Each structure stands twice: as C-alpha cells, then as structure tokens.
Amino acid sequence: MPLDSNEKKILDSIKIASENDPNKPEFPAENPKFPATPTYKIEIPGFSNVWLKDESYNPTGTHKDRMAWEIIVTYRDILIAKKRGQIKGKLPQMSIISSGSAAIAIQTQIKKYGLPNLKVLVDNSVDKNTEKIIAKLGCEIYKTDLSKKCLGFKDILKLTKNKNGFDVTSAEALDPTTRFYDWLSYEIINSTPDYCFIPFGTGNLYENVLNIVKKEVSTLNHDPRFKGSVSKIRSCNFIGVTTNDLNSKADKLYSPYLPFVHFDKQWIKLYRYAGYCGKKSDVYILKEKYLDEAIAIAEKSKIVAEPSGLVGLAMLLQMKNKIPKDAKLLVVNTGKSKYIF
Q: What is the CATH number of domain 35-62+181-333?
C-alpha cells in the first residue's frame, strides 16, 4: 500500500544527516551539531577540575530530547517499510510510562512531525501541573497505581488501550541501551574524565554509556565520533546515582519497580573485571542531605536543573573524601523540562 499524501509529507520532512558522522550530526534536528550540548568547568569547593555536561540546553530542556528524536527516526523506518509494501495500515501509536520529561520531549517531536499522539501512563499521584501540561501538548493520559506491581509491555499497552501499538518504555526493538543516547555517550567519554557521575533513573543513559565504553575499548576500528583516549576511559570510574527514598526531591529517579533495567551487580562486576571501566564503577544510593547541598550550588552557579538531574553533583559531594582532589571529574546534568515549573 503506497503512502498517502500526509504520510509522504511526514517522511519527506524527517531528515537524518548520518548515523555516526560527527561532521554530519543528526541531533538536534533543527540545528544539528556535535557535541549537541556544552561541557564547561564549574567551581566545586575542594576540587580543582570539575566539569558539567549540561543537557539543559536541549530543545525541551532535558536529555530525553535525544530519546524523542530516536522515536521520530523509528517512525521514519516504519514509513519507509510501508512505502515498500512491507506493512499496511495506520501508523501505530506509542505508549510510555512517564513522570513528565520523557512524555513532553517525545510529544513535542511527534506534534512537530504530525505523527500519532503519544499515550502516557502516569501514576495516580502525578503532579497536577505536569498532567495538565502533557495533556495540553496532546498526549493521551492514562492513570494507574505504579507501585502495585511490576508492569510488562503487555500491561502497559493494555492500560493505555494501545493493542496495535508499541511500548517505548521497554521496547527492545529500539535498542534503548545502545541507541537512545549513543551521541550523548560519545560526548561524555570524549571528555576523558577520571570519574563520571550519571543520574540513574530508567538506567538507559548509564547503560548506554557503559556499552559504548565497552565497544570502544574492545576494538581497533573506532566509531568516527570517538575522540577520547582508550586508556583513560578504561580506567574511568562511571558512577551511576539513584535513590531508594520515596520522599526524595529526586522524584524522577525513584520507582518501586524498574522492570526494564538491564543493570545488575553481575553485569557491572563483569565490566570491571574485564577491564572495560574503572574499579569503582557501580550504581550508588544517594543520601538526601547531599542533594540539598547540590541544589544550593546549582542555584548559586545558575545551573538549570531539577533535583533528579543534579544527583551526579550530589554524589560527588557525598564521595568527596574518597576522590583525589585533582582528578578530572565530569558531572552529567540531565536538565529540567522547560515546560514544568
């Protein structure tokens, strides 16, 4: 079945410069560049070489914009398959569990290209302002008690009344731990830090970075985006940061269930033993008092971030007595949605 006029228009509007050519980056679509967001030095008492990877410069203010772009690329692939006659019918809708940022980023892109609205599953306790914003953007909202049980993709599709669609919370077909944040992962490791602090919510970003690291330290045929040092990233300690506090200000990171996270102690243990990364690489639990300190520093330094985006900085403060004062430290700030206040 050939594309109708609207589908052809959508397909023609999605431009992808390249998959991995740093001279022809694909993100952000309106103004592609590599690196897409800045990394700059910040002042942290007690340390002399701290840098911030600042994802607040993305179109809607968070690293989720990179994930959103990959959803658009996926729709492009679906349209090409339909054009070839490989599939028939209407374009599928996507479903996702979200507390706000991911839904805003994806729906903003979907709306721009005239694609089917996103179906969003939120917790019954969702912030009312957030709910109002994602609804205004055009998302279809469905509510449930996310603390009740671990939801699989079939559950999510059922709860969002999306029998013929796809759940992008979990979608293995989209390779979330290698694809969603591959360009960002290269931007991070090209900084060649001794320690790298990364927020760990869904885990996709942290896993993506470690998978890219494994790839680059295990090959002689490096990706053209890689401009770092193999020896440096092999010894870099990648510190994932999360919370187990239900009442934490880092509310985007807490979840009673993380059903689609691939991280486990055996996985990271193997990466350390195989020499892919530093010996302290792991996912650590944050103590709330250090997040308060990080928030104060961010406000003073005019860093745009919500608490969940600042947990990397907070963990640096928590570990300050265990880190060499002259080590090169990279803190990843995942940002703050421009639509949520």
A: 3.40.50.1100
